[in-house]
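Lecture 7 notes: from sequence to structure.

We start with a single chain of 181 residues. Read the sequence below before looking at the structure.
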Amino acid sequence: MIELRFFNRSDYQQLISWIESPAFLMQWSGPGFRFPLDEKQLDEYLKEANGHDSNALIYTVADKETGNAIGHISLGRIDRENRSARVGKVLLGDKSVRGRGIGQQMIIEILKIAFDELALHRVSLGVFEFNSSAISCYEKAGFKKEGLLRDARNMGNEYWSLWEMSILENEWRERKMMQDK
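Now the structure, written as tokens:
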């Protein structure tokens, strides 16, 4: 089991240690950061986040039993007027816990915040086309593919295409009802 706790300065070094290459940084954050990731960039990332009316909520994912940080996730672009937001920066950094369904738990927990606490209507995300395990995880959580942004990011000598995916509040509620039965 996991819990989400607000990301703060004490989590910086753990996150930095998980980002091992420019390609991995792009896969995790899109064009939002430069390699190598450093404290100055993370200070800027947190600057306007995690307040009552912030447009971003940034979390460390912790193992409930040990309290150890095992990942990272954010809910950004929170638009209260249009009741939408975007899941981003999804990372299961602790390789020893991969393959145990924790990614799925992370997505469910962030959707609980989005739909149950913030009363949003739509949550979206982007995922690179080659990341089949993440796509599968998102689909299991109820996300639907909306479209492929072809050659959306340039990484070295190649281009990466990006799936846009979303889930709506009624789809979230239906999924929860099915699980409760």
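The chain has a mean pLDDT of 96. Keep this in mind for problem set 3.
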